[in-house]
Amino acid sequence: MSKCIVCDKLLKNRYALRCVQCYHESKRGENNSNWKGGKPHCKDCGKEITRSSRKRIVKRCRHCARIYQYATRPETNPMKGKIVSQKTRDKIKKSTVGINKGRNNGMFGIPSPHGKRIKYKDIFFRSSWEVGYAMWLDKQGIKWLYESKTFDLGNCTYTPDFYLPETDTYVEIKGYWRDRSKLRFNLFKKLYTRCKIVLIMEKEYKCLK
Questions:
Q1: Among the residues of the chain, which ranges form H helices?
Q2: I need a surface site. Which of 15, 120, 127, 172 has the fewest CB within 10 A?
């Protein structure tokens, strides 16, 4: 019978060069990017991954892998709805940075779901202000399109509320002017300088009536 070239263990298969244990050890060492000095280390906490948790190629220790799973799949968390310590919260936040942000998000390039879902002319609008503005445009005899185009801003997208084809103008209706909305609006104006866009807030909206 042949012997393993690593540990000299007797092999049942005479054509094999290594035993099963040494074979998997070598595969882990070659494929695991967190391998340091021949031993795997956790991607999050940096601690050495113990032998009991190295049955397959892993990037996190058992503790960090569990936190990562609960953060990405909260429905599997048995602590759901219970009090979690601040230390655990910080660890979850650190391990999930950038997971579903920007282009990694499955909803990238897709407008966010409707909130109030107010229907007018077989179109579902997000707010009553948008419906009121659409009605005002119809009274004025102005043609309009609702959320007709989505613009790529790099790590996010922006979809203006209305497009007026007669004047080639985009219109944004804002009842709440949040920081995230300001950032996207200003970035759109900076990247697409040729596009004309008008911002209508509460003061401008009341003047339309």
A1: 20-31, 62-72, 86-95, 128-140, 179-191, 202-207
A2: 15
Q: Which residues pair with 196 in a beta bridge?
A: 169
What are the distances in angstroms from CA 43 to CA 51, 63, 99, 100? 16, 12, 14, 18
Q: DSSP secondary-structure letter at 177?
A: -
**CB–CB of 131/118 below 8 Å?**
yes
**Superfamily (CATH H level) for 118-207:** VSR Endonuclease (3.40.960.10)
Looking at every residue in the chain, the average pLDDT score rounds to 76
In terms of pLDDT, which residue wins out, 196 or 83?
196
pLDDT (0 to 100) of residue 33: 52
* Nearest CA-CA partner of 163 in 187, 150, 146: 146
Q: Tell me 114's DSSP state.
A: P
Tell whether pTM > 0.85: no
Task: Name the 3-class secondary structure at 153.
Answer: coil
CA–CA distance, 60 with 44 (Å, rounded to integer): 7
* Confidence class for position 34, pLDDT limits 50, 70, 90: low
Residue ranges of the domains in the chain?
32-99, 118-207
Please give the Cα distance from 72 to 96 (Å, whole number): 8
CB 47 within 8 A of CB 75: no
